[in-house]
Write a structure and sequence with these properties.
By secondary structure, the protein is of the alpha/beta class. The chain has one domain: Glutaredoxin (3-Layer(aba) Sandwich), CATH 3.40.30.10. The chain is built from seven helices and five strands, in the order αααβαβαβαββα. The chain has helices spanning 22-25, 30-36, 39-53, 83-99, 115-124, 138-142, 172-184, and strands at residues 72-78, 104-110, 130-133, 150-154, 160-165. A five-stranded mixed β-sheet has the order 3-2-1-4-5, with helices on both faces. The longest helix has 17 residues, at 83-99. The N and C termini lie far apart (36 Å).
């Protein structure tokens, strides 16, 4: 599990317990903890967690964390067995294509234990965005994922500004509005 150095001591708002365990830190009090951290620290740690979850690929490609600074990031947790994920992938591809030039980055986080299941899904529902794997659920626990798919929109400062659980076609306009609102906060948009 990746840990950020600022997690080794509790923020001032928490009782002095010596250490925050990952269960305490990323359990029900996750958003309280994230709020207590500086915006820059949240973005740095969130991106570091994504990098830690990234698998080695044949090309040894890794996430370039510098690419995410000042961008709007959608972190989308999905699995091959998830029926709503089949509907969300074409929409995520569309959002990536539509808003990439304005600073949007989509990162799909696969939760399947078997890589072959994810590969089969991606053959049927290709992703035009970055995919990382999290078969052990480490990153999912850190984001407190409770449904498939679960999407988190992070603004340029690393704040979680929107979250939606599941994917409903009739709410696509609402989801896109959250992306546009986040993009509007970026300098130059």
């Amino acid at each position: 599990m990746h840990s950020c150095d600022f997690f080794s001591r509790p923020p001032k708002e928490f009782p002095a317990t010596g250490h925050l365990t990952h269960e305490y830190l990323w359990g029900p009090d996750m958003f309280k903890t994230l709020t207590a951290l500086s915006k820059r620290a949240r973005l740095a740690c969130g991106l570091a967690m994504l990098a830690a979850a990234a698998p080695a690929t044949p090309s040894a490609e890794t996430l370039d964390l510098a690419d995410y600074r000042g961008k709007i990031v959608i972190v989308d947790f999905w699995a091959s067995w998830c029926v709503p994920c089949r509907r969300s992938f074409p929409w995520l591809n569309e959002m990536q294509a539509k808003y990439a030039d304005q600073g949007l980055v989509v990162v799909g986080v696969n939760m399947d234990a078997e890589a072959g299941e994810a590969d089969a899904f991606l053959k049927e529902f290709p992703a035009d965005f970055r995919i990382v794997t999290d078969p052990g659920g480490t990153l999912a626990k850190q984001f407190d994922v409770i449904a498939m798919p679960s999407s988190y929109v992070l603004n340029g400062d690393g704040d979680i500004v929107a979250r939606h659980l599941g994917f409903k076609v009739k709410k696509q306009d609402e989801y896109e509005a959250a992306i546009r609102n986040a993009l509007a906060t970026l300098k130059g948009n």
